[in-house]
């Protein structure tokens, strides 16, 4: 076992109860998004410390395994996508790192499909850990393409762990990434597996899901025979387990900042008592696992020289999220200017990182927009534009945008007024719109219609944003009030 030195975890080892014969321990994490080196959170971090990094996360796991040698290490997906090493290696960096971390169970996430299923299929034989996704089926045969579940024996008690990913995959990645696949309904898949497992005299059933916290709650209600859901996808910080009926739900935020520790005792049919907490992976408190660090450094050293070049200065924190953010405003302004469009839209899901005030490095732009999306423009008339904005307001599909000022009645989500670059919409005028290829691939859901004309500009988002930072040099972004609630 790797050598680790950590005073906090040494204290934990001294005060922890002896591992009881009927106690099971789950150590879990999710949505690392290739944040393989320590990073400094902008939010909820008054100490300004660095957290995460796979070599440090692994060291914490090893320390916990000294206390709980039979604990299971569970990863709930989305290790791919988020930093340059994953994009450049198309996920191979994460497979090689996980081969050393060696999780006992890994459920595939939606971002594992970002470089295409064909790419992931090539990586599977290289993985030395088991990959699960019971609802990922061959489109022709309807047969599962990944493992469905695994059964463990803990002191005579059989515990089954099954894995499912989001059945909204067609809406979460580009359609071309899912060629040859059918994604089955997540709840129906779990129901089917639970019925199958009941015939094997299983005492407890755990679902490791990559479907998001809201969907986990629906799953718990729909399949009450489950005992525990270890979740991912929504990056939800749960410092307490949520219990619905007899189903316990846990999730450990994202980016390797936390490890979840779920300890429970059980009888023949259910969890009888449990304890749960999130352990923050603070890098200064532990020595990294050398074997994991070696793999991390191998990939990081290939890109560090280029990625750590400073290209600008940020005067105020860039913070993503919500119907409007200062980061979303800046990105869409750049898109609008670069393509000379009247209006620009980008999706919040494509903005992956906050950035603290200070130097802006090449790496930061890659990590804010890691997908390598391209810009697509299309033209609509004023009547179509008004209908589009009304659809977005009424269906909660608002997103970061530039060019519009939208006033909404808060009670009832009703559009009250919309201006285009300060002017009322002319129903007969033509307006140019720019968005990224992901949004354009899902325009029916985002805008309520599919444009019948479009131009693929070939412009890659991060290249355009990098040039904009270099040109502006000093950036001080504010939320401008482009969306107003009355």
What does this structure look like?
Helices cover 30% and strands 26% of the residues. It is α/β, with parallel strands linked by helices. The chain starts with 6 loop residues before the first helix and ends with a strand. Mean pLDDT is 93; it is low at 1-21. It has 15 helices and 26 strands. The chain folds into two domains: 7-300, Purple Acid Phosphatase, chain A, domain 2 (4-Layer Sandwich), CATH 3.60.21.10; 310-485, Alpha-Beta Complex (5'-nucleotidase,  domain 2), CATH 3.90.780. Helix 1 runs parallel beside helix 2 and helix 2 packs antiparallel against helix 9 (290-307).
Element layout with pairings:
Layout: H1 7-15, E1 23-29, H2 54-67, E2 72-75, H3 84-89, H4 92-101, E3 105-107, H5 117-123, E4 131-132, E5 136-138, E6 149-154, E7 157-165, H6 169-172, E8 181-183, H7 186-198, E9 204-210, H8 213-222, E10 228-230, E11 242-244, E12 247-250, E13 258-266, E14 271-280, H9 290-307, E15 310-314, H10 326-339, E16 343-345, E17 358-361, H11 362-368, E18 374-381, H12 382-394, E19 401-402, E20 404-409, E21 414-420, E22 423-424, E23 430-436, H13 437-441, H14 443-447, E24 455-460, H15 461-472, E25 474-475, E26 483-485
Parallel strand pairs: 1-2, 2-3, 3-4, 7-9, 9-10, 10-12, 15-25, 16-23, 20-26
Antiparallel strand pairs: 1-13, 5-8, 6-7, 11-12, 13-14, 15-17, 16-19, 18-23, 18-24, 20-21, 21-22
Helix pairs in contact: 1-2, 2-9, 4-9, 10-15
